[in-house]
């Protein structure tokens, strides 16, 4: 693998999956989607791994969503849309082992597909969360739907509607429940691994059943919301050329709250 790194501590029962494109701020391309899918599916069969940590390399970003240089072929029919990020997460690949996210730096846009399929999030003090879709003439659909189950409605609405003009600090993300633990900068991975190690020490069947129960409480609502997403995106997204113009003209300034 070239875009994802897998490190397994069999003694602790913990695997660390690291997004490994630091030169692109761990933006997701099609190769990474494929490699993540293989990792999640392979971990289903590795009984030595009982808990997983998901992190980003480089320190500047956990993940900045889909790589804008990625070419995603689309069917000509408006009734069929391919969103590669829908297949990037652990739940989408049938992994019911607990996954803890360790966030340092930026987590934005498509990163919420991944965070939305983790059990909880540990973040360094310098982490920042934002969703720039609306700034560039794009509908925030799957991202906002996933975050609406993690944060109060008003906080999600503000984050996705303010776009690139505002970022949610790690402190504020902790206050509103998106982040479960706040650490010093550079310590999120250590803290996440400590949590995963504790969980991995419990009987796997009970842990995985609990993960499945938690997800069952969420997935009915998500399924109904996700069914609307392709239509909302098709209706609300500006043409690609116009999106590119807005992206090229993006403002450098932003407020962190």
Automatic annotation (TrEMBL):
Database matches in InterPro entries: ClpP/crotonase-like_dom_sf, Enoyl-CoA_hydra/iso
Pfam family, one: ECH_1
Protein origin, superkingdom: Bacteria
Family, similarity comment: Belongs to the enoyl-CoA hydratase/isomerase family.
Protein name: Enoyl-CoA hydratase
Lineage: Bacteria, Bacillati, Actinomycetota, Actinomycetes, Kitasatosporales
